[in-house]
Amino acid sequence: MAKSTPTRLRVLKTFKLYIGGAFPRTESGRFLQEHNPKGQLVANFCRASRKDLRNSVVAARKAQPGWAGRTPFNRAQILYRMAEVLESRRESFESALAERAGIKSADAQAEVDAAIDRLVWYAGWADKFVQIMGTTNPVASPHFNITSPEPTGVVTAFAPRSAPLLGLITAIAPVIVSGNALVLVVENEHPSIAIDLAEVFHCSDLPGGVVNILTGLREELVPHAAKHMDIDAIATFDATDEERRLIALEAAESVKRVHNFESPAKHDWAQASAQSPYNILPFVEFKTAWHPIESGAAMGAKY
Amino acid sequence: MGKTANTSVRDLLFGDLWDYAPAPESRDHLTIHERYGHFIDGKFVEGEDHFPSINPATEEQLFEVASADEATVDLAVKAARKAYDKVWGKMPGSERAKYLYRIARMIQEKARALAVAESLDGGKPIKESRDVDIPLAAAHFFYYAGWADKLEYALPGASPSPIGVAGQIIPWNFPLLMAAWKIAPALAAGNTIVIKPAETTPLTAMMLAEIIQEADLPPGVVNIVNGAGQTGAAIVNHPDIDKIAFTGSTDVGKIIQRALAGSRKKLTLELGGKGANIIFDDASLDQAVEGIINGIFFNQGHVCCAGSRLLVQENIADELMHKLRHRVSTLIVGDPLDKNTDVGAINSREQLLRIQELVAAGKDEGAQIFQPSSPLPEKGFFFKPTVFTEVTPSHRIAREEIFGPVLSVLTFRTPEEAIEKANNTPYGLACGVWTDKGSRLFRVANALKCGIVWGNTYNRFDPTSPFGGYKESGFGREGGLHGLLPYLEVR
């Protein structure tokens, strides 16, 4: 367990789940253990169950219309606020990355830097990707015609197996920036950092339920997510062929959108190539609206 | 809803005192071969296992068409792969563009023959194939031709590149138009193609193959294989295809999505719908009636985005239904080649049976049926324009895609109820909203979960306008700038 000074016993944190803006334990009462690279125990954490997943989807579905209904400007401010709060707690994350994950101090600092900067970068897209990805369509008839992206709805993402902080931001930001609600399933070497991050979100004005975080085993939760009829899209990072097969097989029943990302190589996580407005696209739907234009001739206009 | 609409005033109906004289489009400039095979590697091949293709308006055989087996599909994929590697994938976009422009022009040159072929083979009224299907097919090639050398401007910062060999499967409701929707963006993006037309409507696709040959498109860039579901499965399951694009039923779409499980193929699906056409009490009712008619009876209702559920605000329901019944009674059902025909033949016996089954279910479940009294042709597959009232959201005719000239009418009181009912379906392709109030139109359009919203209009299509669904109506867009996305790798 984490270090104590000779005179004082350190207070340890219980790592729970993050569902609907609250931190419940897994309803299953099960736990898994996280170790540092030396093999020392650093945390017990929750092994989320099917029921936890279902509860998260309910929370996400409830939160999603309100989140999508926020103005893009407001969503941008909230993502930026998440970056602000992460910056204010950066030392805590640096020491967590160092102590629990054994990441060298300079690398830990670089990962926190990149995580904050990536949040800021995606925050800026909230009120811009609609302008880049939307179109006015010059149809060959007297109609006004526009196409605009809307969030798909409830997305479940299986987080990267590496980059315990930056990987999470890379998975979360492009999904929620457009107005989706997310259930993030984290299975990596250091899932406790995901729950620390949930605390950042919790005090960043992000409405409860927009991001839900489950720690546990992908093997257990992948089939349940793939079958769940109220999940609109699934994102994976580093999915095995078997995971891809299983998800595609079950996702078809409700025509879920499935997008499989590959994690970048270790040293490329912080690069600009690991972020893209095109990572927003798999989780939006394009809506096209038509309306007639009154005929000038019919109104007796002279032009 | 009022079954006793205003009948005190005698309606003047076209055709109740006299009939229109027949005005058939001539077919003598169209040459139909006795037999069609496939178009592979730039050559027409005889093919195997031929089966008859009939004219649904007369039930007479038009020609025979082949059914590609796995070996034939494999030849087509090999030709497409070779053309991609050696020619098309390397060709400058500006040269690809000129081939597409050529094809667009040749479709325009042959427009009349193509329109007649489309109506003969599929049963759609000549006025629709002549004024909608064929001009739009040409326009799609023309539109995407211009993208071929401008892809880097379409997707800023994305350095787009083609995907490879695309397998495409298209339906029978807009045969040439669906071929254009699939082929034009794929070629503009630099991919090569194996495409399968629907088994009941291969004629215009084979005429397009002739155009492609005359346009000197390099061999193998477009390969057309005929056949039914088994041929489609051979395309979907072929290991050397990089991307599948399917338009058709949601049931088959799900089968394809499952079939691709474990492969790395990309997929886009354009599936079924149960579109709501919502009429608010401030709408222009006469215009709305035309929109309702166009929404459900265009192409015999064989339209995935058909406005097959009419949602009428309760306080105008009686008046609107009176106008609508009157208008339905004036529709001319009959010979697809007749220039006055509004509603042509149902595409196949199989589809007619499906429509009959669902209409019977509507009656059994207690909805009230209205059909005009005019008789149907004695031969061929025809179905009367049908309007069901007193439909509840749980009725099969309110939930299942009928894909025929059958309208289900429901009512609502508030915008909230209209939105709720419109979205109460696993589908999400298209909706219509009729109101004179702009702010309400925007609000409802935003709240509808569907890919196309027609405000004060319905069933409009354009090559610049993206088309595709939410939810179980599929994913990916066809048309417009967004129609390029499924055919490009984006970094």
TrEMBL record, chain A:
Pfam families: Aldedh (PF00171). It comes from the Bacteria. The keyword Oxidoreductase applies. SUPFAM superfamilies: ALDH-like. Residues 32-259 form the Aldehyde dehydrogenase domain. Keywords: Oxidoreductase. GO terms for molecular function: oxidoreductase activity. The keyword Oxidoreductase applies. PANTHER family: ALDEHYDE DEHYDROGENASE-RELATED. This is Aldehyde dehydrogenase.
From TrEMBL, chain B:
SUPFAM superfamilies: ALDH-like (SSF53720). Residues 45-490 form the Aldehyde dehydrogenase domain. InterPro entries: Ald_DH/histidinol_DH, Ald_DH_C, Ald_DH_N, Aldehyde_DH_dom. Keywords: Oxidoreductase. GO terms for molecular function: oxidoreductase activity, acting on the aldehyde or oxo group of donors, NAD or NADP as acceptor. Belongs to the aldehyde dehydrogenase family. PANTHER family: ALDEHYDE DEHYDROGENASE-RELATED (PTHR11699). This is Aldehyde dehydrogenase family protein.
